[in-house]
Write a structure and sequence with these properties.
The complex is a heterodimer of chains A (about 110) and B (about 210). The longest helix of chain A is centred in the middle third of the chain and has 13 residues. In chain A, strand 2, helix 3 and strand 3 form a beta-alpha-beta unit. Chain A has a single domain, classed as 2-Layer Sandwich (Beta Polymerase, domain 2), CATH 3.30.460. Chain A has a 4-stranded mixed beta sheet with strand order 3-2-1-4. In chain A, helix 2 packs across helix 6. Chain A has 6 helices and 4 strands; from the N terminus they run H-H-E-E-H-E-H-H-E-H. Chain A is about 50% helix and about 15% strand. The radius of gyration of chain B is 18 Å and the shape is elongated. In chain B, the strands form 3 sheets. Chain B has a 5-stranded mixed beta sheet with strand order 1-2-3-5-7, sandwiched between helices. A 5-stranded mixed beta sheet of chain B has the order 8-9-10-11-12, sandwiched between helices. Chain B has a two-stranded parallel ribbon with strand order 4-6. In chain B, helix 6 packs parallel to helix 7. Chain B has about 210 residues and is an alpha/beta fold. The longest helix of chain B has 11 residues. Chain B folds into 2 domains: about 110 residues, Dna-directed Rna Polymerases I, Ii, And Iii 27 Kd Polypeptide, Chain: A, domain 1; about 100 residues. Classes of the chains: A alpha+beta (about 110), B alpha/beta (about 210).
């Protein structure tokens, strides 16, 4: 299991593959809205920009821990926003963020 | 080949005028740039670069021109920064490495996200001394006798989580400085700072605070 995970992360992953990988390995993502944005959506960049929108608290602490483990061999840059901050900044629309579930689904077509 | 070396090679090869980028051994890569000396860069996957780690890399790669902390969350301790700068070794993020290769200053480059702000604050006349504890945390002694601890956040729009994370990771600060000239801290970020006991400010407000403290 560990070896398979290592092999997966060592490849240069597409945005869609990263979305699948995160959704499979980070169960707490189900409790948050999660997106990818930035240049990694169009090509393999230096990292993958991820936006997490949701409340602070225990669930967020758990999610951070899961994401940190998932990013052990993957360059993630994760931005955490409260729902009010996402609304205030209009970040999702302004940055053209794509929902991780939508991204993951596009690999399975 | 480690994952971070793999990603670094892929991205360095896209930098204009780079003619080749090859894995040497361990975490080191050699970058050949048109009309410039080759660059030996070491690509670290560390979450924190300490002086000890920087020294170890230097011992393993005596010709190292640049040390890259590949993770976005990589933190550089002040001792590591001093060691690298004293030995004329560039340091910083993957973006810093790409820029340094383009401009031919790999040996003297410093983390591009913080270099401008650090230079800016050092120019203030009211500051008598600055101790760089980490790449993003400074303790400044002012001519008034006051001492302030400042944490820098480079996000376009720092969030409450960014402010709390900085506080949790580096300990209490008096001021959180949003060093990105574009955008502003969210209202929740300012409120999080207020609850913790620090101000969350942009450059103009910081300058006024330092000059009046």
């Amino acid at each position: 299991m560990g070896r398979a995970k290592d092999a997966l992360a060592k490849q240069l992953m597409t945005a869609e593959e990263v979305a699948c990988y995160l959704l499979e390995t980070c169960g707490s993502l189900a409790e948050f809205e999660s997106f990818m944005f930035g240049s990694s959506l169009s090509a393999v960049g230096s990292d993958y920009d991820i936006l997490i929108v949701g409340p602070s608290g225990v669930s967020l602490t758990r999610l951070k821990s899961e994401l940190r483990a998932a990013a052990n061999e993957l360059p993630l840059d994760v931005l955490y926003m409260l729902p009010t901050e996402a609304a205030e900044t209009e970040f999702v629309i302004r940055e053209g963020c794509i929902n991780l579930w939508q991204l993951a689904a596009s690999t399975k077509r | 080949m480690s994952w971070q070396v793999n990603y670094a090679l892929e991205n360095v090869r896209k930098v204009p005028r780079v003619t080749s980028a090859e894995h040497v051994h361990g975490d080191a890569i050699k970058i050949t740039v048109h009309n410039q000396p080759d660059v030996l860069a070491v690509i670290s996957n560390a979450y924190t670069i300490t002086a000890e780690l920087a020294t170890q890399y230097h011992q393993e790669f005596p010709d190292m021109d640049f040390l890259c902390g590949y993770r976005k969350e990589c933190v550089w301790e002040g001792g590591a920064i001093r060691y690298l700068e004293d030995n004329t070794i560039g340091w910083g993020s993957a973006g810093t490495l790409s820029s340094a290769i383009s401009t031919g200053n790999a040996k003297t480059a410093a983390h591009k996200e913080y270099v401008f702000s650090y230079r800016l604050i050092r120019q203030l006349r009211c500051i008598m001394n600055i101790v760089r504890e980490f790449d993003r945390v400074l303790t400044v002694n002012l001519s008034s006798g006051c001492t302030l601890r400042i944490g820098m956040i480079l996000d376009y729009e720092p969030t409450a989580d960014a402010v709390r994370t900085l506080w949790d990771r580096f300990g209490p600060v008096d001021i959180v400085w949003n060093i990105n000239p574009n955008g502003n801290p969210t209202q929740n970020a300012i409120e999080a700072g207020r609850q913790l006991g620090c101000k969350v400010v942009k450059w103009d407000e910081l300058k006024t605070l330092l000059q009046s403290s």
